[in-house]
Amino acid sequence: MKRILTIVGLTVLLLPVLFGCGKKEDDRSGRSEVDFEVVPKEELPAPLAEAVEENKKDEIRMTYMDGEDLYLVRGYGEQATGGYSISVLECSEDEEKVYLDTRLLGPENPDEISRDPSYPYLALRIDMRDKEVVIQ
């Protein structure tokens, strides 16, 4: 009897391990790419440029609607030095949402960077969509 209880106990403990090792389904299935344009600071609508400036010391995840355009902004807050860049990993959509995923890239050559703080952000312009936006 003790042996049966031990086997049952081990089976119960090992089941989560066995099922936890299965292949995870990609959350991005069913998404299609969204065409976007990177918008320089000088070309941002004035209210959006002001909002970015006011919030630049903190992380920013915001959207702004202007006519037929939708702006997606991702800022990384204050960084100790200059030389940072931002890479777009994903800009896609499904039936309900638009997704933006970016990555902050550190300075490539530490000897040639500004020692002043910087406030890296990225603004993208896409066609207007009536969907929730998820910025990661």
TrEMBL record:
For this chain's UniProt record, which GO biological process terms are given?
proteolysis
Question: Which domain of life does the protein's organism represent?
Answer: Bacteria
Task: Specify the PrcB C-terminal domain's residue ranges.
Answer: 70-127
By its UniProt entry, which Pfam families does this protein fall under?
A: PrcB_C
Keyword annotations for this protein, in alphabetical order, are: Hydrolase, Protease
The protein's matches in InterPro entries, at most eight in alphabetical order, are given as: PrcB_C_dom
GO MF, any single term = peptidase activity
The protein's name: Protease complex subunit PrcB family protein
